């Protein structure tokens, strides 16, 4: 039911996006809720499916791991409560499903510091009340019908609860997304086919200006050295729309701020940062307005080529987007599924779509997605983010994808990528050059084009050592700092590189990939 509900929400994703005006009009509620559910589906696909504790953990863990945006984080907490109610059950009947919806409501409200009515929380309450109103002994179908009826009644009232919704003349987007999930569960039970996606012709975000805080910032952390309450206190001064929650040993944070770099560097001192995401909400707003303009035109010529890139790290994501790419979130230790890539390709309006996997572990999934798209997609086998940047720089949407393939492949080959991270275990490795490296868990390690070449010292030492070994007259070095690196760290490293290589142009940016101190390209 949850798998099918994910697909059901996917049908209405853009419609939900078009309703999104609260807490900020960034037009991504449908996308964020769908991505959160896709993460749940991935965990369900690999869990022990005939054991309810395993299924419940997959729901809770998958939701937290994939939670995106305000709506996605709250949805993860609704699903956490839902899953906890099922964890020890052998079977699920109408009464247990009712208790699960009630637990979802309780956990959702408990996760928000200042719950606001007229949001997804209100609709979750309606769903729980509706389920509880079913007659004693009612079956699952009846419980879902009653949950939808009451949930819809409260969703219809949300404009009277929130002035922003009334101003825009819309119902709450998160609440609508939640109802689509419940509706999808019922549709699976009844054997109903997925409906066609509704045509979206207007976006409520057109009525609103930019918000006070410019960046939607998120993090996922493990091995936290402070309790969630303490981390929430650390984050609170940085902005608003704050959510800091936890499940299965992880801490997830979401906040709107003007200081994403400083916030992530602060939080990163108290645990192991696994994932970060920073979205420029002004850019999102501009993109939505552009989509609204496109939707208003009766006919739009489809360009010959589109671009999909797998990436993480907000600086890299921003760069790929500026080069025309639709992003699939993922990378090292967080590989996207075939379905994630297929969904992204389908969302691009182009005759053919070029896929940049940007990681050797994503290449197979990208090639499988290409097969499923039956000639509509082309894969350029980029194995690092640096190669992906080189390829994307040669992308031209007005050129046929097959013609672009050679130029983009050549562009990928012109970039050397250096990655600085930490060893996950103690070992010794012999490099391609015959050097033996004795490595302890936690040591700095350096990779050149995905091959281990250096170990020990500081992250900055690693960058300089690898550049020294690979420099052969190239012109540009670009540095992306990881989530725990401050702007001062980046400026200091850029100065060292300029001093060592005075003929090279050096650029330094925040927003490098998760789990890395630095990602550096040489071209």
Structural summary, described in words:
With 523 residues, the chain is of the alpha/beta class. The chain is built from 20 helices and 16 strands. The protein has a six-stranded mixed beta sheet with strand order 13-12-9-16-14-15, with helices on both faces. Strands 2-3-1-4 form a four-stranded antiparallel beta sheet, sandwiched between helices. Strands 6-5-7-8 form a four-stranded parallel beta sheet, with helices on both faces. Helix 4 runs antiparallel to helix 5, helix 6 packs parallel to helix 8 and helix 17 crosses helix 18. The longest helix has 22 residues.
Describe the structure in brief.
By secondary structure, the protein is α/β, with parallel strands linked by helices.
Write the topology of this structure.
Layout: H1 2-11, H2 13-19, H3 29-46, H4 52-66, H5 69-86, H6 94-111, H7 120-132, H8 140-161, H9 163-168, H10 173-190, E1 215-222, H11 228-235, E2 239-247, E3 250-257, H12 260-267, E4 272-280, H13 281-296, E5 305-311, H14 314-322, E6 325-329, H15 338-347, E7 352-356, H16 363-372, E8 377-379, H17 385-392, H18 401-413, E9 416-422, E10 427-430, E11 436-439, E12 444-448, E13 451-455, H19 459-470, E14 476-481, H20 487-500, E15 505-510, E16 518-522
Parallel strand pairs: 5-6, 5-7, 7-8, 14-15
Antiparallel strand pairs: 1-3, 1-4, 2-3, 9-12, 9-16, 10-11, 12-13, 14-16
């Amino acid at each position: 039911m949850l798998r099918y509900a994910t697909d059901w929400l996917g049908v209405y994703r853009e419609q939900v996006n078009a309703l999104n005006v609260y807490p900020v009009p960034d037009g991504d509620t449908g996308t964020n809720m769908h991505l959160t559910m896709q993460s749940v589906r991935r965990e369900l696909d690999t869990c022990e499916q005939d054991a309810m504790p395993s299924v419940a953990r997959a729901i809770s863990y998958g939701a937290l791991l994939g939670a995106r945006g305000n709506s996605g984080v709250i949805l993860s907490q609704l699903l956490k409560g839902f899953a906890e109610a099922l964890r020890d059950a052998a079977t699920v009947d109408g009464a247990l499903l009712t208790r699960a919806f009630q637990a979802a409501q309780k956990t959702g409200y408990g996760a928000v510091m200042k719950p606001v009515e007229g949001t997804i929380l209100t609709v979750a309450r309606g769903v729980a009340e509706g389920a509880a109103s079913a007659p004693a002994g009612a079956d699952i179908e009846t419980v879902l019908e009653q949950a939808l009826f009451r949930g819809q009644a409260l969703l219809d009232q949300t404009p009277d609860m929130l002035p922003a919704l009334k101003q825009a003349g819309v119902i709450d987007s998160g609440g609508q997304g939640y109802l689509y999930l419940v509706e999808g569960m019922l549709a699976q039970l009844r054997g109903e086919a997925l409906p066609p996606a509704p045509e979206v012709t207007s976006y409520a975000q057109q009525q609103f200006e930019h918000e006070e805080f410019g960046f939607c910032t998120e993090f996922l952390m493990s091995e936290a050295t402070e309790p969630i309450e303490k981390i929430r206190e650390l984050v609170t001064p940085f902005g608003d729309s704050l959510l800091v929650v936890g499940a299965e040993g992880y801490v997830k944070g979401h906040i709107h701020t003007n200081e994403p770099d400083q916030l992530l560097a602060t939080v990163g001192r108290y645990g192991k940062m696994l994932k970060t995401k920073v979205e420029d909400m002004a850019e999102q707003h501009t993109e939505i307005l552009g989509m609204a303009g496109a939707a208003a035109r009766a006919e739009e010529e489809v360009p010959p080529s589109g671009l999909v890139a797998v990436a993480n790290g907000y600086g890299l994501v921003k760069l790929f987007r500026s080069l025309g790419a639709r992003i699939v979130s993922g990378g090292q230790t967080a590989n996207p599924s075939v379905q994630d890539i297929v969904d992204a390709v389908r969302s691009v309006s182009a005759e053919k779509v070029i896929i940049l996997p940007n990681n050797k572990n994503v290449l197979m999934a990208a090639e499988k997605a290409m097969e499923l798209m039956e000639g509509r997609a082309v894969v350029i086998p980029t194995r690092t983010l640096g190669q992906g940047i080189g390829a994307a720089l040669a992308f031209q949407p007005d050129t046929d994808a097959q013609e672009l393939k050679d130029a983009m492949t050549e562009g990928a080959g012109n970039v050397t990528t250096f990655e600085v991270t930490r060893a996950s275990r103690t070992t010794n490795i012999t490099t391609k050059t015959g050097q033996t490296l004795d490595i302890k868990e936690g040591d700095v390690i350096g990779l050149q084009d995905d091959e281990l070449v250096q170990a020990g010292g500081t992250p900055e030492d690693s960058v300089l050592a690898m550049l020294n070994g690979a420099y052969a007259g190239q012109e540009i070095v670009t540095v992306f700092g990881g989530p725990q690196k401050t702007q001062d760290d980046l400026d200091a490293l850029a100065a060292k590189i300029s001093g060592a290589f005075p003929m090279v142009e050096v650029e330094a940016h925040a927003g490098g990939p998760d789990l890395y101190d630095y990602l550096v390209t040489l071209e």
